[in-house]
Design goal:
alpha+beta, Aminopeptidase, 2 domains, 14-stranded mixed beta sheet, three-stranded antiparallel beta sheet, acyltransferase activity, transferring groups other than amino-acyl groups, GNAT_dom, Acyl_CoA_acyltransferase
């Protein structure tokens, strides 16, 4: 049943579950009217390609709610207008570690994630956003989630104020979203490195062995790797190393190695930068023309970001050894060239603020930004064992960013 909130004698706000048969057109109209993150004076918009739940449908459990303005007009002619929406999903992730028989083991928690909260421009400051969050949290708690978290641009004052003020969330982590344009020329990949595409079973073994104690690591990593949007997991190895499967690698790894997976957001949604001047658009067009005509010069160029473009998301970065960052940069170059073949506009990754790889991964500052993750405990009757209250824990060197939620 929808939850009603009186606005006037003839107008109420009803919050109900999204109906794909009747709501998709109005939802996309609201989505297209809302910017999702500032780039200086520019704004970034999403195009959901006709599927409003595309960003959550790959999660183990998900829900989408809409806020609908209902006006009976005082004459029995009811009018309904969708003015906001919210999406949420639930999964099990690593929230800490414990020690058993000289081994470090992950501690898991059931975690909910809020994304895609939108309220139309003409219906803001009416409490609609907080009501959507509250209804979503009820669903989270009813399905056993112990914590809820959101990610927002650190510079988005209105969103930060809503969640940390009215909704009771606490600032938790500040990872960096690193964005790099896909050039018309290919990036160089070191000839001292061999890049191997892992089988699904080898990729799962490697991630569970090396990353299961990493904060936010999804316990259903197999579902992530088996998803059709996952383009593969790639391992950078020394040129002389002979790959013979994950068992041999895990028992006797080389001194230096790096791993990375690629998620195809290009088939899920498109982004578009709006608000650019004709001069800026003309400059970007010129850089592309020059780069295509003279690719051997390897000049940086700006892709068609002022019209809808796709992206690949790089996740699961990790590795070991004194040359680890160099190997990771080789993987980045490989990923760039893969995105070029797939006609993406940009590639992006998200890394912990404490991660040393953040300084090594190429990115453009004008396109990149600091993310703010805020967290809320949904109840006080949980037993977190050795972790305690996760909200009070200190950040580690790395986090695992689930591509299903980017």
């Amino acid at each position: 049943m929808p939850e009603n909130d009186s606005r006037s004698s003839s107008e109420v706000v009803a919050i109900r579950q999204y109906n794909p048969k009747t709501d998709s057109k109005q939802v996309e109209q609201v989505e297209n009217s809302c910017e999702v993150g500032p780039i200086a004076e520019l704004s970034l918009y999403t195009h959901l390609l006709g599927d409003p739940i595309c960003r959550i449908r790959n999660s183990p459990a998900y829900l989408m709610l809409v806020a609908e303005m209902v006006d009976d007009g005082g004459a029995g002619e009811e009018k309904r207008e969708i003015v906001g929406m919210i999406r949420g999903c639930i999964k099990t992730v690593t929230c800490g570690t414990k020690y058993s028989r000289s081994k470090t083991l992950p501690v898991y928690t059931k975690l909910a994630y809020i994304l895609g909260l939108r309220v139309s421009l003409f219906h803001r400051r009416m409490g609609i956003g907080s009501k959507l969050v509250s209804r979503m949290e009820e669903w989270f708690a009813g399905n056993g989630a112990e914590y809820s978290y959101i990610a927002t641009d650190d510079a988005n004052g209105a969103s930060v104020s809503l969640f940390t003020g009215k909704c009771g969330y606490t600032k938790f982590r500040t990872p960096s979203v690193l964005v790099h344009p896909v050039f018309a020329h290919r990036l160089h990949v070191s000839n001292r490195v061999t890049i191997v595409k892992l089988t699904l079973s080898d990729a799962e073994s490697l991630y569970r062995h090396h990353f299961s104690t990493t904060e936010f690591f999804p316990r259903d990593i197999d579902a992530v790797l088996n998803n059709q949007l996952n383009l593969g997991t790639f391992l950078a190895l020394p040129k002389q190393y002979i790959w013979a499967g994950s068992d041999k690698f895990l028992s006797d790894p080389p001194e230096n190695w790096a791993v990375m997976s690629v998620w195809n957001c290009n088939d899920v949604f498109k982004l578009e930068v709006k608000g650019a001047s004709k001069l800026r658009k003309g400059f970007a067009r010129t850089t592309r023309v020059v780069d295509r005509a003279l690719p051997f010069l390897r000049l940086p160029s700006l892709p068609k970001i002022f019209s809808p473009f796709g992206l690949h998301f790089l996740y699961g970065f990790g590795g070991s050894g004194p040359l680890y960052t160099r190997f990771a940069k080789s993987l980045f170059g490989f990923a760039h060239n893969l995105a070029k073949e797939c006609k993406c506009g940009v590639i992006a990754t998200e890394l912990s603020s404490e991660d040393p790889l953040k300084l090594a991964i190429p990115h453009w500052k004008v396109l990149s930004f600091t993310d703010l993750w805020c967290i809320k405990r949904l109840g006080e009757d949980y037993s977190d064992g050795s972790v305690g209250d996760w909200r009070k824990s200190q950040p580690g060197l790395s986090i695992f960013v689930d591509p299903r939620e980017f």
